[in-house]
UniProtKB/TrEMBL annotation:
Keyword field: Oxidoreductase
SUPFAM superfamilies: NAD(P)-binding Rossmann-fold domains
Coiled-coil annotated spans: none
Protein name (record): Gfo/Idh/MocA-like oxidoreductase N-terminal domain-containing protein
Length: 401
């Protein structure tokens, strides 16, 4: 491992590399002892094509569904499934389907999840869990009442960078984490505002903080903290593209300062427009070590406190911590069963999401991102947007624990 000081880091960043070996983050990432098969229905042929249920030794894709014929046929092809339905409602009548993976538009998530639960099906649902406070409560009560398994398919929780941060945290490497930050930048999202027929999609004018989970999970999945208050600021430029959007949203970008239940600070930012590189990244700042995740080829690195000191440009004494470039370990090689052990989308998270949902059903246990965790990721953004619409008013965030 190469050690460099602060000035060397600035001049050499992106050029040096050093390997760091850590053990696998997820205890569940191992072959299952059971040969039980979960019969799954996959609904939604856009994002829903990016998972690997057909490769999991404990899963059979029993049926697929999409309103569009072409997407439905593509689902059948990808998941090697011969049965399809024209709607979720028809799929839910199939007695062989035990669980449903929902990849439908975000405004439909709660309604569709509740439909599945009422039909006696376990649910894996794309993000976000809900779009407003009322839906959060509806979802929470529906899952609790059903006694069935609900999991949200949050990719950041299962990114390799997050896995590494959890390893550091569990080993006590950070010391005390006193602040953290995360950014989700997706400039150019307006290309998804309208379909090929110029009809508005559900993304038209979507408030950035109503899609917060790629940000909030960087902290919550590592430390388990809950975000309890927020002040948020929004930025818009008066673009006509935002006119008449169903959310009444004037903002392209939103920046929020959260307080955690441990009294720590967390800054979260979701941006749809600007001179920004598209990225999902996290930072964790501790009194012993800080860690900064990968940023578009610039690498991940850690900063470790030391006894070394130097002087700044004004001649004042300043600490000179050690800085290490960190090469990501290929976590996907460390125990995922059979054919599903390979690289995948969103920081190699898709195979882990697939395995966690299926294994939680086989082992009859709570999944990593259950309804408590899903709402902890989701509702802070809902309240943050509310704050932005009220000129940055400090607001409390409900906690579903």
């Amino acid at each position: 491992m190469e050690k460099i000081n602060r000035r060397q880091f600035i001049s050499q960043f992106g050029l040096a590399t050093a390997a760091m070996c850590v053990s696998p983050r997820f205890a569940f990432a191992k072959p299952l002892a059971s040969d039980k098969k979960i019969r799954l229905g996959v609904v939604g042929g856009n994002f829903g094509l990016g998972f690997f249920f057909h490769e999991h030794p404990n899963c059979i894709v029993e049926a697929v569904s999409d309103l569009d014929t072409q997407r439905r046929n593509k689902l059948m092809e990808v998941y090697q499934c011969k049965k399809s339905y024209e709607s979720l409602e028809k799929l839910l009548r199939d007695p062989k389907v035990e669980a449903v993976a929902l990849f439908t538009p975000a405004p439909d998530h709660v309604r569709h999840t509740i439909q599945c639960l009422k039909a006696g099906k376990h649910v894996l649902c794309a993000v976000p869990a809900a779009m407003n406070e009322e839906e959060c409560y509806q979802l929470f009560e529906a899952v609790k009442r059903s006694g069935l398994t609900y999991m949200m398919a949050e990719t950041t929780t299962y990114r390799e960078e997050t896995m590494m941060a959890q390893e550091f945290y569990r080993a006590g490497k950070f010391g005390n984490i006193f602040s953290s930050a995360a950014q989700y930048y997706h400039p150019g999202l307006e290309t998804l505002y309208f379909d090929d027929n110029k009809k508005p999609t559900w993304r038209h004018g979507l408030p950035p903080m109503l899609y917060p989970t790629h940000v909030t999970s960087f902290l919550i999945a590592v430390t388990g903290e809950r975000l309890v208050s927020v002040a948020c600021n929004g930025w818009g430029d008066g673009s006509p593209l935002l006119n008449n959007n169903p959310y009444g949203n004037p903002f392209w970008n939103e920046t929020a300062l959260f307080r955690t239940d441990k009294g720590n600070s967390f800054m979260g930012e979701v941006c749809w427009r600007g001179a920004l590189v598209g990225v999902e990244r996290g930072q964790w700042h501790g009194d012993k070590m800080s860690y900064y995740s990968e940023y578009k080829g610039l690498g991940s690195h850690q900063v470790v406190s030391s006894e070394m000191q130097g002087k700044d440009e004004g001649g004042f004494v300043v600490d000179e911590p050690e800085m290490h470039f960190v090469e990501m370990k290929p976590f996907w090689k460390t125990g995922l069963p059979g054919k599903i052990s390979h690289i995948s989308g969103h920081g190699n998270s898709h195979c882990f999401i697939t395995h966690e949902f299926i294994s939680s059903l086989v082992e009859n246990r709570k999944p990593g991102v259950d309804v408590h965790e899903a709402l902890a990721y989701t509702i802070p953004g809902i309240i943050a947007h509310k704050s932005a619409m009220h000129d940055g008013e400090l607001l409390k965030i409900p906690v579903f624990d």
